[in-house]
C-alpha cells in the first residue's frame, strides 16, 4: 500500500542523507542510491506490472521503468525538502530508438538542473554499463537526445493520483 512505499522512501533518504550535507551532496546521494539499488525493468514492457511504473518499483522491487526512477527521485528529494519537478517527454537512445521517457528537474541553490537517474544507471537489461555514470547528472540545459514534453510539480496532484498511480502503480495498466 501507499504507506509502505512512503516508508521505504523515507528509510532510503535516512540511509543516504547525512547531517551536514549540502543540497548538491544530498541530490548526489539520492541519485546514487537509485542507480545502485535498482535496475531497469527486465521483463517485457508490454505486459509489465503497474508497480514497475511507480515509486514502489525501484524502491521496493528494485527495478522499474523510467517513470519509476523519476517518481522515486521526486519523492526522495521532496522528502528532503529539495524542490523537484517531474518531466515527461521523448528521448532517443544510443541505437536511435525514440520513445516516451520520464526524468526530473531539481533545484540546487538558485538554479534548476535536469537529471536522469534511469540513463545514469550502470545496469541496463541485466548488463553492466561499466560503473556509475554522471552523463545525465545536473545539466542546466538538458541533453540533445531528450525533448521535454510536460514539466510538473507532483505536489499539485491530488491524493488519489498518489494512491492509485505514483506510489503503488495499482491504476496503471
Describe this structure in words.
- The protein has 173 residues and is α+β, with helices and mostly antiparallel strands.
- It has 6 helices and 8 strands, in the order H-H-E-H-E-H-E-E-E-H-E-E-E-H.
- A 4-stranded antiparallel sheet has the order 5-4-3-8.
- Strand 3 (84-92) and strand 4 (98-108) form a beta hairpin.
- Helix 1 packs across helix 4 (66-79), helix 2 runs antiparallel to helix 4 (66-79) and helix 3 crosses helix 4 (66-79).
Output the keywords.
173 residues; alpha+beta
Task: Summarize it.
This protein has 173 residues and is α+β, with helices and mostly antiparallel strands.
Number of strands: 8
| Continuous helix count | 6
In round numbers, the mean pLDDT is 91
Strand content: 15-25%
List segments where confidence is low: pLDDT < 50 over at least 5 consecutive residues.
Answer: none
Query: Helicity, in percent?
Result: 25-40%
* Sequence of strands across the biggest β-sheet: 5-4-3-8
- How is the main sheet built? 4 strands, antiparallel
Which class best fits the helix and strand makeup?
alpha+beta
From the alpha carbons, calculate the radius of gyration and give it in angstroms. Answer: 15 Å
Shape: globular
Order of helices and strands: HHEHEHEEEHEEEH
Through-space gap between termini: 17 Å
Amino acid at each position: 500500500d501507499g504507506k509502505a512505499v512512503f516508508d521505504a522512501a523515507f528509510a532510503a533518504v535516512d540511509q543516504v542523507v547525512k547531517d551536514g550535507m549540502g543540497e548538491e551532496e544530498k541530490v548526489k546521494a539520492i541519485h546514487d542510491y537509485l542507480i545502485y539499488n535498482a535496475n531497469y525493468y527486465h521483463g517485457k514492457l508490454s505486459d509489465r506490472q503497474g508497480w514497475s511504473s511507480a515509486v514502489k518499483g525501484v524502491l521496493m522491487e528494485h527495478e522499474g521503468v523510467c517513470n519509476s526512477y523519476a517518481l522515486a527521485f521526486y519523492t526522495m528529494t521532496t522528502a528532503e525538502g529539495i524542490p523537484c519537478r517531474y518531466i515527461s517527454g521523448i528521448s532517443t537512445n544510443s541505437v536511435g530508438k525514440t520513445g516516451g521517457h520520464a526524468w526530473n528537474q531539481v533545484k540546487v541553490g538558485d538554479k534548476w538542473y535536469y537529471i536522469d537517474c534511469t540513463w545514469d544507471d550502470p545496469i541496463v537489461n541485466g548488463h553492466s554499463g561499466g560503473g556509475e555514470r554522471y552523463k545525465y547528472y545536473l545539466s542546466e540545459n538538458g541533453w540533445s537526445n531528450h525533448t521535454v514534453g510536460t514539466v510538473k510539480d507532483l505536489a499539485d496532484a491530488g491524493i488519489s493520483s498518489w494512491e492509485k498511480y505514483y506510489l503503488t502503480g495499482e491504476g496503471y495498466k
